[in-house]
Amino acid sequence: MASQIMGSRNWIAVASAEHVRIGRAGGFMQVCHGKAAPLRRIRPGDRVAYYSPSEVFRGKDKLQQFTAIGTVREGVPYQFDMGGGFVPFRRDVDWLKAEEAPIQPLLDVLDFTGGTRNWGYQLRFGLFEVSGHDLDRIAGAMKAALPA
User: Which candidate among 18, 96, 137, 148 keeps its CA 20 to 30 Å from the CA of 4?
Assistant: First the structure.
């Protein structure tokens, strides 16, 4: 597994798998219903993995999988008109070839879950920083080759 890039940070973003797949296909990410502030915390070269609690937005299914992983490209957050008056902020991401992977087998080995019952609490924030160790473990589960 790759080690953390010097000076880069590691993030978990949260969105439905349906929305993540749209972003993966378009080479971008959006978080927190299109808000700019969370995306301003992320820098080029940072690594990000998406966790999808469900298949569709507000879905009742429990997908609970990591659905994308990549590295943030150069640039800053920008707005994109999706029509219907929705103009969310985005960041460009180089998404890696990866398999979707369930979180359940990783709960005891990830720092942010630490084997606790309340492991999902941080996911409510939509975007949070994690250790390089965690992102490396997630990349391994997704069979993704993070850049060294």
Answer: 18
The SS3 of residue 139 is: helix
Question: In b/e form, how buried is each residue of 32-57, taking b as 16+ CB within 10 angstroms?
Answer: bebebebbeebeeebbbbbbbbbbee
| pLDDT exceeds 70 at position 54 | yes
Lowest mean pLDDT among 3-7, 77-81, 115-119: 3-7
User: 91 in a domain, yes or no?
Assistant: yes
pLDDT tens-digit series, residues 30-46: 998 889 999 999 999 99
Q: What is the pTM of this model?
A: 0.90
User: Count of domains in the chain?
Assistant: 1
